[in-house]
Amino acid sequence: MSAMAMESPARFTDRTRIIVGENGLDALAKARVAVYGLGGVGAACALDLVRAGIGYLHVIDFDIVEISNLNRLAIGFSRFVGMPKTEAFMQAAREINTDIEILAEKTFFTSETATKVIARECEIHADCVDLLSPKVSLLAAMRTQNLVFISSMGTAGRLMPERLKIGLMSEVKGCPLARAVRQRLAKLQIPLDFPVVWSDEPAIKPMPREGQRGIQGSAPFVPQAAGHFMASWIVRKILEDTHV
């Protein structure tokens, strides 16, 4: 084994320490963050949090890694095909930080059960759920309970990461997913004052399939960039009290 391989895994945060300082690293190591959904956005967000030095992650996803995921999934490697995304993520995360604590749940939740999957031991939450009804229920529950969270709106069918932005849900324009989410939250009388990552780039229309829902295209750029935006927001939120 090389001398480099024998060094403490904490060394991977050396460059981060220059930016956030020792107090910042300590705050990140003590933070507990939940990520709901390990798709194109969620996997990138979760891996960024690992690389940033977050000490505890609670990740939830029901799906497996498929060949069609490899063009955009941060944990999309041939060796992971057929494996639950939660397991693939844990393996990838521990190649970065062997000391990280991860609670991974391979769980499919519906609009009726969304509130039950909330990781209540965590201080900050990242909604990266793709399905509309569970997403709305999760957002409604987190906002009602005054949890600290950020949500991702639509990223599929887009090629321009520079058109992503972070803003309040009430400010989003031109995103079909956000429009549908906003309409449902309005019926539930949920305030739209929470932060979201969204794009104003018009999405390319899905490829139609006879008798089935169309297939939406996706590329690595926008979903992963949205995940980076979310992870950066979370890290900065954690660092707020450290004066970084």
TrEMBL record:
Q: What is its EC number?
A: 6.1.-.-
The GO molecular function terms of this record are: tRNA threonylcarbamoyladenosine dehydratase; ubiquitin-like modifier activating enzyme activity
**This protein's record includes keyword Ligase:** yes
> What keywords sit in the KW lines?
Ligase
Q: Which top-rank group of organisms is this from?
A: Bacteria
**InterPro entries per the record?**
ThiF/MoeB/HesA, ThiF_NAD_FAD-bd, Ubiquitin-activating_enz
Q: Which GO terms describe its biological process?
A: cyclic threonylcarbamoyladenosine biosynthetic process
Entries under Gene3D superfamilies matching the protein? NAD(P)-binding Rossmann-like Domain
| SUPFAM superfamilies per UniProt | Activating enzymes of the ubiquitin-like proteins
Residue ranges of every copy of the THIF-type NAD/FAD binding fold domain listed in the record: 18-160
Q: Does the keyword Ligase apply?
A: yes
Q: What class of enzyme is it?
A: ligase
Q: Which residues cross the membrane?
A: none
Stated name of the protein: Putative tRNA threonylcarbamoyladenosine dehydratase
Which organism does this sequence originate in? Answer: uncultured spirochete
Q: What is the lineage of its organism?
A: Bacteria, Pseudomonadati, Spirochaetota, Spirochaetia, Spirochaetales
